[in-house]
Amino acid sequence: MKINELRQLIEKYPAEELRLIIPELYKAVPKAKIQERNIDDFIKNPRLTRNRSKSTNKEIRDINLIKNEVEQFLEYAYNQYYFAPNRFVHKKDRPKWRFIVKRFYKELSQASGNDEQYLPIASELLEKIYVMLCYSCSYIIFNSFDSFESIRITQEDFYRQVLSLKFQIESKKQFIKNAVELIINNSVNRYTLYSDLMNVFLEFLKTPDLKEMAIETCKIMEDEIKRDLKNNDYDYDTTNKYNCLVEIVFRIYVQLQEVETAIDHFKEKYIERNREIKFYILSHLLLEFELENYFIKEYEIFIKKGIEPRDRLKELYHKLKKS
């Protein structure tokens, strides 16, 4: 429910009902949030607290000071100073890296909204922190199993925040290329799929023109990577990057209601020697978008080629045919 809708709704309530509703809402708010948002003060004096919050801004530290701290933190992190014994980070301070990252995340997000001149620096620093956290998903630099889980920010949300800053300062073409590279060139944690990040990226492609631009950019990147694969098609990392690009294009075509084009592009470009696995991946994508009719059609084409699909797809096909 939107705030305006809420206001219109409560205007109809008599005072007695509001006396019942407000205490229940107060009990539902976590204690930490009550303290953080000064809810008690607001209840005691709504007008005074509201005016105070409008007239005062949170003091933001100097962006250059934050920049120096971030750069030192990244250097220490990549050198495993927050993991292994060293003379730069004391043993008792090594577990505190997660609080440092959370503080940087909050400060850079606030700094970008306070002054436009801070935005490029904040965007660059937040992106570097995100890339470092992705790196920690594949290499041990912290004494934790999952860095994103440790800071209590999902990889999707962190990626979204990075993109929200970049979207404000980069040209649309540059933004698209950089956003895609952040997906294909970095690792994901145990709770995140590449498709999750793709869907976050697609949130920023709000117009058909941006979608078409993203398709064109991804196809150019496909060709560049394909040239690298010619001599070594067993390179898993490069093949994964290429297939991620193919999947992004598929998703955008579907959003443009060009499903046939999406399927044709996937079948032509996606690299997977096992044809049954390739069909399973295509089926998964079609069913994710609730394109059951297209799944049935592709299933029947697949069967005619004499390839045996897995039992799960057989059962699903027969179920959909009966319905």
Secondary-structure map:
Layout: H1 3-10, H2 15-28, H3 31-36, H4 39-44, H5 46-55, H6 63-78, H7 97-114, H8 119-135, H9 147-150, H10 155-169, H11 172-184, H12 194-202, H13 208-229, H14 236-255, H15 259-269, H16 275-288, H17 292-304, H18 311-322
Helix pairs in contact: 6-7, 6-8, 7-8, 8-10, 10-11, 10-12, 11-12, 11-13, 12-14, 13-14, 14-15, 16-17, 17-18
Q: Outline of this structure?
A:
With 323 residues, this protein is mostly helical.
**What distance lies between the first and last C-alpha atoms, to the nearest angstrom?**
35 Å
Q: By helix and strand content, what is the structural category?
A: mainly alpha
- Overall pLDDT metric: 90
Beta-strand content:
under 5%
Radius of gyration: 25 Å
Discrete helix count: 18
Low-confidence region ranges: 52-57
| Overall strand count | 0
Biggest pleated sheet: none
Helix content: over 70%
- List SSEs in N-to-C order: HHHHHHHHHHHHHHHHHH
* Form type: globular
